[in-house]
Design goal:
The protein is an all-beta fold. It contains no helices and two strands. The protein has one domain (8-56).
């Protein structure tokens, strides 16, 4: 999204010391249901450049 485009408002951030990533809850403010294209990006723990600690992170639903 372009800089300054309001996509979401963060409502909660949860950090777990065992995970290198935080879990973030957000309320959508953009009208994504009217856009033609939307990209979802998931962290791939199996990727060669992923840090070793990422293997303990919770996998996103597939």
């Amino acid at each position: 999204f372009p800089a300054g485009y309001p996509v979401a408002t963060v409502s909660r951030v949860r950090r777990d010391g065992a995970s290198p990533l935080a879990q973030v809850d957000a309320k959508m403010t953009a009208a994504l249901d009217r856009d033609r294209l939307v990209a979802f990006i998931w962290f791939d723990t199996a990727h060669p450049s992923a840090p070793a600690e990422a293997a303990r992170a919770v996998e996103p639903p597939r």
